[in-house]
Structure of Heavy metal-binding domain-containing protein:
Amino acid sequence: MSLSRETSVRLDENKQNLFSSDLSVSEFLLLEELGYEPIGLAMGTSVYHLGFQAARWRESLELTVLTQAMYNARHLAMNRMIEEARYLGADGIVGMRLDIGGQHLGLESSLSEFIAVGTAVRTPKAERRAGGQPFTSDLSGQDLYKLHRAGYRPVSLVMGTCVYHVAHQGLLQSLRTLAQNTEMVNYTQGLYQARELAMGRMQEEALRAGATGIVGVTVSESSRNWDNHVFEFLAVGTGVRKVAEPSPALQTSLTLSLND
């Protein structure tokens, strides 16, 4: 999907020394100290139709059709954001966020808008990778500053997702647990497995990207407009790799940034 005329006009203005950014003042100043130059706000969006997948009432299992749809929609939005960053000549995107909206726009319930937003930056010349894809990171400016001073660099935002159907109780099970305090084992096992699938996929993405670790991991759960026994588990973090020894001024810098 090529850039629209309106997008090209906005990005061209950013190229002419009028940058836009969603960084706070503190984040902007810390990144500037590292030699990062904000050059524009990069955005990507995808309005996606989420289909239907039937599940058995008494069976806990992954709904792979919906899992793939959620994964594809987010990557379409992310790739368009990265394309805008490339147009600006960026080396990376910081402060990224992934959102899902659309209902406020009056879209029908089967449609969702997937949005990726972040600030495109140029890095110091010594850190640039010739011909490489811009790195992506959802870390705050403060966290990126500390990471940089410790000798680590962001590689890529990595994620894993799993849409999962948790089995309903049978009638006998419902009667046995009525008015009792007891663990609902089928629910526990189903939710545990869904989270593990999402986490495992996030780790696989990190390995493929060449990261040696993942920081800032969050695992969220939502039910969207599906059945109340269907949930999406999303694991997101920033893959990182160590490239240098910690800065001698690390302790002082960390103290300053922690008090910011």
The chain has a mean pLDDT of 83.
